[in-house]
Fold:
Amino acid sequence: MTWVWELLRAVVGTVLIFTGVAVVAAMFGVLLERKIAGWIQSRLGPKHVGPQGLLQTIADTLKLLQKENIVPKNADRLIFASAVIVVPLAALLDYVVIPFGTAGGRPLIFRDLNVGVLYFAATSSLVVVGILMAGWGSNNKYALLGGLRSAAQMVSYEIPIGLALITVAMQAGSLSTLAIVNAQTGPGHLWYVLTQPISFLIFLTAATAEVNRTPFDLVEAESELVAGYFSEYTGMRFALFQLGEYGEMFAMAAMAVTLFLGGWHGPGLPSVLWFVIKLYVLIFVFMWVRWTYPRFRIDQLLNFSWKFLIPLALLNLVVTAFFVMVVHG
Amino acid sequence: MTQIAWIIPLLPLAAFVLVIFWGERLPGRGAFVSIAGIVLAALAGLAVLGDVLGGAHADPTYTWAVVGRRLLTVGFVVDPLSAVMLAMVGVVASLITIYSVGYMAGDARYTRFFAYFSLFQFSMLFLVLADNFLFMYMAFELVGLCSYLLIGFWFERPKAARAALKAFITTRVGDFSMMIGLLLLYLHVGSLRFTDIFRAIELGGFGGPMLTTAALLVLGGAIGKSAQIPLHVWLPDAMEGPTPVSALIHAATMVAAGVYLVARTYPLFFLSQSHEALTVVAYIGGITALFAATLGLVEDDIKRVLAYSTMSQLGYMMLGLGVLGYSAGMFHLITHAFFKALLFLAAGSVITAVATNDMKQMGGLARIMPVTFWTFLAGTLALTGIPPFAGFFSKDAILLAAWTQDKLLWALGACGVFLTSLYMGRVIWYAFAGQYRGAGAAQPGGPGTGAPAAHAARSGHDAPALHESPAIMTTPLVILAVFAVFLGWLGSETIGNPFARFVHFPGVEAPPQNLWLLLVSILIAVAGWVAAGAVYLWRIVPSDSLRRSFGPVYTLLLHKYYIDDLYAWVFLRLGAVVVWLAGAFDQYVVDGLVNLTGWLSRQLGLGLRYLQTGREETYLLLVFLGVVIIVLVRLAW
Amino acid sequence: MVTLTHYLVLSAILFALGLFAVVTRRNGVAILMGIELMLNAANVNLVAFNKFTAPQALQGQIFALIVITLAACEAAVGLALVLAAYRSLETIYVDQINLMKW
Amino acid sequence: MSGEALAFWVLAVITLGSGVVVVTSHNIVHSAVALVPAFLGVTGLYVLLNAEFVAVIQVLIYAGAITVLILFVIMLTEGGTGLRVPQRNEQGAVGAAVALAMAALLSTVALRATWGIGTRTLVYTPGDIGQSFLGPNLLVFEGTSIVLLVSLIGAIIIARKED
Structure:
């Protein structure tokens, strides 16, 4: 049963390494976010800490680390505390199946599951449990409303994501992420963003909703809900939520790169670099969208998923199935 | 083209989808789309016919679903039989659809009419191409549905709604029989594909009485669709639908589906023990041919006369198939489709003009509507089998085959020929000869159909001015008339009967020519015309006196042999008795027992109700408690 | 060495836990949770039998997947019922839902 | 102790421990949250049993959807307001006895019986399962989809507000 160990090692390894990497990535992501926001709104953004404000997030993190961990008086302490672990953990678990590139002929992936794509969908759906726990545990109506909204929203948008994943898997003939990446290279094979543009758009839209970003960010709509489900969290716990959120966003972007943009493949540059470039292009798109569009209303948001995205994704699925049938005969 | 023949039915289907959803916004309010669909299908059908004439053949099959170890395959077949039908259905349906633009003008549901029409054309073409019983059955149901929709098209009129229901239910009886038949075949052969079934029968894997039973059950479907005795009652009533519908469904296509089914599954009948099943087909056809012709004699509604004539002619086709005249029966189907569509459309043209279906209200129309008259006459001559019109060749071939097989069947057919001439002559002279008898062409309406009423309403005050129908209606008439006049030569022995060489069933020899028989049948047809003339034109024997002297017969015919009443009586009165008995039994015996049980339970329940807590937890607990106790008891034993 | 029996005993205990929840809980949602536990226990059995007694067949896993699907249906309908009951009766304690009782 | 045995015992403890919390906690939200580790423990068992596809579906459906649905309904109905209301009915003792008896009974059966042991150990791919669903098990598959559709419609009809 060595593979059980291997799997455990993969999961633990991912969590450990990516706690490190994700902390850096999330910190950099926050800085990027603020810089892009500033750029789009014709401001400067953080500028004073370090050269061009590069160390701003580190300073913020240090500040958060020193802050007091406040627990509201009537909060459900156990749930309140454990929610903080669930959210980033669920986000980090996503990375097990994401291939980052190749090194010495071996793909850089923690574990190439033959159900990889489904694994991704499954773990990313766990985040919502943590969010509900946070919303409930805070014993605060804004937090609870934020949590409920988030549950409704994430459950709704998991379906288009799943349908988009399936179209790609059907075309590649495999659920393994490595196989999908490899199916997008070589002569006669296009990136799936070209053969499955609708799936790509659906995935990107639903992923934006899944990570609760504008225009789907009413989970934490400041004007209505203060800060949503993490209103009551302070200090390090707040930082952990931020970590989970950015981790989830990077995971979604990485998955989009894997499924639609040919993964690590690209001419000239080292494969990991290619992956990172594609990843940051998508991250930029996420941020760009955030600072460009206004927020949806909750009913519009749910209707958009159920009445537009899901039917469209289903139609796309049928069409894809038809073509796959015709091609593979 | 033959390899992609499955596209043909899809053209009208596409037209249907477009017209039903976006019809009002399409060119010609959907009519043009519908026409484009069927005309393209007709052209493709003709192309396929050309290919098949050149020897092409296709019977591809695809696996549709695998259920366990069972394989469901679907496919289509292109052979001479289906190619001829494709071309015929395409051409006739195209002409009728074009004609409908004129006929249906001004109708409130104009667009929907064309949508249904396209759906029907799809179903019919699908039926023709089916290479297995599953598709055949699906198509049968589809044409049944379309005929329901189209007969009941003017559903505001209770008669139309009832007629639609009647048609639907009556044909369903036949379809049900067909379903049982094909289940039987599937059970024994394990496939629904025609060729598989035929091969199994040829190899002796399936035969004997069971085969005859299956064949007769399948024949049940054909009888229902082709309005043969005893499931004929729906066809006359179906004339409540718009005239193009009558022309399309009740002349050219749907009713032909039954005959086509028999032809398509001919080996089923042919290989049954000593052709038993074929004999049944022949007798049903022969009796229907004569029976329907007698009914045509006393009917005053021009469309109903044509409906009876259709039944009668379908009887001839069945008769032809039944007496081993495979090519003759099919040839009659083709020629009949053309001239009967022509007759119906011409009748529709007349009805539009005079706004009534009653022949006695017409008269003298030959001068007013020359095109309609001449085309109608051409169709009539073709129908009555006067040489050299189309019907002559096909009907004569059937009679020849009948003579070779069974003299009694020949006699039935020959009587039918006489009566056909008689009632068609009656129509001609009532409707087109003499003076116009319409009491108030100025106030049309009455029992007239919706479209003529609308037509008349538009024409307003100058209604009395009867006039020829517009070109869009007369053009198809002329084209069809050309077919009615010349098509017959394809089956002429003088040029070697090309049709029979093209569409024939291997193993059936064409009977030798018999010149005497030919002359006799011509004489019979002419005699019918003469008799008709004697009664209705020269009035040597006035029809009133005939009616008096044949009083009982006349009444019998007028009531359609009381078959509708018989059905009503059997299914309503007898049903009522059965229901009453069942009701009494139910009320006194069953209810008594039930009440007793109820009383007992009630008494029991009064005692036991305290056990019912209304909570599933308790119940579930008791269930598992029971399980534990039972196991413990069992272990302790 | 983990044998089939290990899994069977584990699933028996899980099943009993679920049963306990179903027969003793008052809250409708908690009863549904108990049912989910019982279904999970059954699924463990199915998959374990699949692996240990008939590894060449897939029926156990197929069956487990179908049970999961039906569990999703059951949860959806059951929770909808709980919601509807809460709306009209303002309670989700099943022993207080007794309108139809004698 | 082999790796497999260690994994099994850890998963068993997680599953049964959370199961106990689910059925005994007086706080319904705690019960619902405890479902997650219980389901994840079962997922681990599936992985041990080489059923990766079932495992992933288990996470997706149970942990990801059903738990969320349950939490959602708890919060839409009374949430934690019922903390002071007794959560257990009067048949607690009998229920515990019956549950214990059932566990003992089933365990006895499992321990006493001898099972036929298959020899080969295979890796089941999602493709195999798909082939099986659309091949020999087509009817079950279609039947399940119809049930799914019907319950979807039913849930919507039942849960929507009268208006």
In short: Chains A and C do not touch (no CB pair under 8 Å).
